[in-house]
């Protein structure tokens, strides 16, 4: 459950083995869970997370997420030495354990369906989101044609119109709204004219 799992510990932290990861490659979404974690935004929460990691001898993290997740990872990494010192002072870990776990290594991977991160062609999650959108469009196109109706489809993407643009191109959409290119005045008449054609 992301940082929530680090803070809560217990059964949230377990070793992945061949059996636990077999037959999941085709699944969309995050199989290991994801959660917004208010506690991890506080030093006390990060202290609990550090304690749980040290308890399991984990000093390498692979963080897949967007801006919040990767910012949290950077803060956690920069505080790591201080968190261990605090755990030693409080008697929660020994100095020997702190020395053994003195370095936290983090690999950050951008996981965002928005595809709005520079330096990468496509962020993790974009392709599977696009695949799901096209499945839905394929399913409703037949219904729209048989009922002679216009369908409006809204896709996710927060402030980024990538998914809308690419799915609109792939499906031959007649009209498209994306945040990067707000509609000009009189768009309603143009759209009705286009749909009338």
Automatic annotation (TrEMBL):
One of its GO terms (cellular component) is membrane. Pfam families: PFK. The keyword Metal-binding applies. GO terms for biological process: canonical glycolysis; fructose 1,6-bisphosphate metabolic process; fructose 6-phosphate metabolic process. Pathway: Carbohydrate degradation; glycolysis; D-glyceraldehyde 3-phosphate and glycerone phosphate from D-glucose: step 3/4. Its cofactor is Mg(2+). Keywords: Cytoplasm, Glycolysis, Kinase, Magnesium, Metal-binding, Transferase. The keyword Metal-binding applies. InterPro entries: ATP_PFK, Phosphofructokinase_dom, PKF_sf. This is PFKAL protein. It comes from Irena cyanogastra. The gene is Pfkl_1.
